[in-house]
Design a protein that fits this description.
The protein has 151 residues and is mainly alpha-helical. The protein contains eight helices and no strands.
């Protein structure tokens, strides 16, 4: 699987689809490596937000963020626009692709300085994800556990 999307065509899409729902560690690492090697934020976002991600695969996402962590500090700073006065849309999309508080913590470890703008986004996401993991899950559990025979 090459770095260029056009060179692998349907094979690329199939591999990404498989990685989104597979438990094969080798396939997951290989796909994450190939995605990051494109050096394209749109490809990263697509892998994190595509229809394939409806079948949430935390291991695939962990490998993808791990591969991003191997980028140089300069590349990560540019990717997340941390040294800019405006957050680029791609940077915001990547950050808001996070699904769990653990994933957010993994991303937070990518850089030591996120700048004031992205720090606000981290704080918002942290509050939101904590709410999702505690409040909403409890409410949903109560709803589905309730006796709905009279409903």
């Amino acid at each position: 699987m090459g770095c260029r999307l056009s060179s692998s065509g349907a094979k690329w899409a199939l591999t990404v689809q498989l990685a989104a729902c597979s438990h094969d560690q080798k396939l997951l690492r290989k796909t994450a490596r190939a995605i990051v090697s494109t050096k394209n934020a749109a490809v990263y976002a697509s892998a994190l937000q595509s229809d394939f991600s409806l079948h949430y695969n935390p291991t695939f996402r962990k490998y993808l963020w791990s591969e991003i962590s191997k980028m140089s500090t300069f590349e990560k700073t540019a990717l997340f626009s941390t040294n800019s006065t405006n957050i680029l849309p791609a940077s915001r999309i990547l950050l808001h692709s996070v699904k769990t508080i653990d994933e957010l913590q993994q991303i937070r470890g990518l850089l030591t300085n996120w700048g004031p703008l992205l720090t606000l986004h981290f704080e918002y996401l942290e509050r939101y994800l904590l709410w999702v993991s505690s409040v909403s899950q409890g409410v949903l559990h109560q709803f589905f556990a309730a006796d709905l025979s009279n409903f």
